[in-house]
Amino acid sequence: MKSTKIALFIVVLLTTAFLMVTGTSKAKKKDVEECFTTSLHHTTRGMGHWYDAKDGFSAITGTPYKDLGCKNCHAASCNDCHLVKTDKGLEYSLDMAKKSSTCLKCHSREKATLQIDKERGTEGVHMTSMECADCHSAREVHGDGTCYESMRSPGAMDTKCVNCHTRKSEEYQQIPDTRSHIVHKEKLDCSACHVSNTMTCYNCHFGELKRTGKKPESFAGKAKDFLLLVKYNGKITSGTLQTLVGVDDYPFITYVPYFTHSVMNEGRKCEQCHNSEAVKALSDGTRYTPVLSEGGKLKFKSGVIPLVPDLLDWPFLKKENDKWVPFKPENKPLIQLGVYAEPFSKSDLEKMKTKQIYKK
């Protein structure tokens, strides 16, 4: 009788332990799933946020974000990044999720960046020896239970250059006490000097997209020749822009902070920013056109271009006889400073116009 009671006690104990472990495992799985459903990879709220804003692209298309095909470009579940086919069947793989090739299946702008840099022999210093996951955290990818409105929302991103590069770094290249690192007094983000140029798919044409239903035919071309500088949280950082043409050829421009993954080991020289062609024109209140049309083709100027929305002229194009041709819109372009982009002030431009004198 005594042995029976002991056996029964052991069975109850093991059953309880099993239920506790199973319950914990299920709860943990549920927590992970709930976090993932709030991640930007799943919600794509970043795109919807700028598109549906009161000064966003929807104002000239009449089509809300929920009715666009863009909303389908998201990670539906863990399968999109982790599921692999093996000899034994389908399995989940952490290695697969960490490969840059997995990220590039969806992140087409980064894929285009790598392709252009490789063709030009100007590959970024990180791209030849690192994977995306070396910088981007699991929390960024999987979410943390908070529905951020964009990747620029406070707390959304963990990735920073200074996570690896510090003045006391032993494992990575240290930040040297050079003139450029001292004189700017934390007013510049690393990208302002170390990103070589801006990647943008120029002149997206919404009317053409609706007509053909094919995205590659709906923009004029890729631009990667100049570096657009914007302000973000008071700091000067790299950015990008998107010129768009809506229904009835209505023009639209959006400017955003953006990190093109074309990182140079050595930063820019002083004269590449200070008193450059664009800076001189914009600081004097002169309109500046970074794009020229020659023989039916676009030619982009190189160099640094500070964001002064009212003085920057970006040509708009539409398709005629299967060729992109410039046209003068009847309406003034709707300009959006999307997801926290800030323009340069007159004071900022004056500082850039004059070569700075270094003083300790």
Give your account of this protein's structure.
With 360 residues, the protein is an alpha/beta fold. The strands form four sheets. Strands 3, 4, 5, 6, 7, 10 and 13 form a seven-stranded mixed sheet that branches. A two-stranded antiparallel ribbon has the order 1-2. A hairpin with a 5-residue loop joins strand 6 and strand 7 (251-257). Helix 14 packs across helix 15. 33% of the residues lie in helices and 19% in strands. It is built from 15 helices and 13 strands.
Helical residue percent? 25-40%
The biggest sheet, with number of strands, parallel, antiparallel or mixed sense and barrel status, is: 7 strands, mixed
Determine the number of helices (DSSP H or I, runs of at least 4 residues).
15
Report the mean per-residue pLDDT as an integer: 84
Distance between the termini: 88 Å
Strand content: 15-25%
Report the principal-axis shape: globular
What is Rg? Answer: 25 Å
Structural class: alpha/beta
H-E order: HHHHHEEHHHHHHEHEEEEHHEEEEEEH
Unreliable residue runs: 4-31
Number of strands: 13
